[in-house]
Structure prediction request, 423 residues.
Amino acid sequence: MIDRELNDTLRWSGAVLIEGPKACGKTQSAAQRAQTVWELDNDRNGRVQAIWETDAGRLLDGATPVLLDEWQTYPGLWNMVRHEVDDRRAKGQFVLTGSATPDDDARRHSGAGRFAVLSMRPMSLYESGHSTGRVSLSRLFEGETPGRWVDPDWDARAALTGIAERVAVGGWPGNLDLDTVDAVRMNQEYVQLIQHNDIPRIDGVRRSPDVAAKVMRSFSRGIATRMSERTIACDLRCGELADGAEGDDATSRNAVNTHLSALRRLKIVEDQDAWQPSLRSARQLQTTPKRHFVDPSIAVACLGASPRTLADDPLTLGHLFESLVLRDLRVYSQPLRGRAFFYRDSKQLEVDTILVLPDGRWAAIEVKLSDSADAIGSAVRTLDAMTEQVADSRCAFKAVITNGGAIRTRGDIHIIPITHLAP
Prediction:
């Protein structure tokens, strides 16, 4: 999907910045479109460093678009590209990719009018070939009602096992040709690389990989919940005390804050903010974000879980399934410039995801791992109660996303298996 977005954006922007976590496919997608490629973090013979020190402008020369892969390796490139776009007054000149956000000084001069920014995430189920695409999110926003369809071969146990595998494997392109066991091992190595290499390198601050592992593990236990940083700090401090180390609450909270900041800059953490609509009632809304990694497989790796253990733990799998659905909704809504929020008020009324488009249209979506009558009934009541509270009439649709085997409509609410959703 990012390939089409990149092609479209290069037609009207002088430079495009693609941001996303390592190993999500940024370089491959950008290289397919680029005419000149500089792999800035793959400088085995020191050639790039020598050019940077003696004639940095050469990195901007060549047939366009010029790809500057992992541009943050040389943060000064940001302003060089900005000036070059101004001088050339041409579109489609540069593509920059980055798996880490450098410090504010590197981008202190705005790229407004020169840079377009695209976010790239791990693959959705549709992109990895695990969704039929029978239901289009964009057409739902246009008011289309999906036709009723039932999978005659659907089996509840097989569906549970299958989604547990998809949560554990994740949407990483490098896992496509691996079996499930090897993919899970690859994800564990990925997480260790983050903890041992990427977090310390993001800002040059020395950090213990053990502390990073504890923070990420605690965060993983709170996936798809409004877990506070204080709770994570408490987990961290309790672990330190158990290990015989001394610490206090302030020290633990500072460790949590700095590690989460690093993970956000690495595009590994992507929290879900609360939606602030206009309301008929005076109910106070909750603002603490819900916790998510950019892909639920990161949480699985941090917890040391497997598809088998997840299938035997529906509560944990339910939270991870919600995170997987959010990942896919973010991918599918990106061409529409949609943003994903959640809704929760002081009366504990909560809707898992609110998708909001720039023109004001929005959709209310509940996520249920189960397709049982009780689960669907609960979701329908929640959606109806929430829309009664919101004064904004631009609700395009309401839906329940499940792991079931049937597409249907109940009243004005669509019930859609995630394995049949597409952009």
DSSP finds 15 helices and 14 strands in the chain.
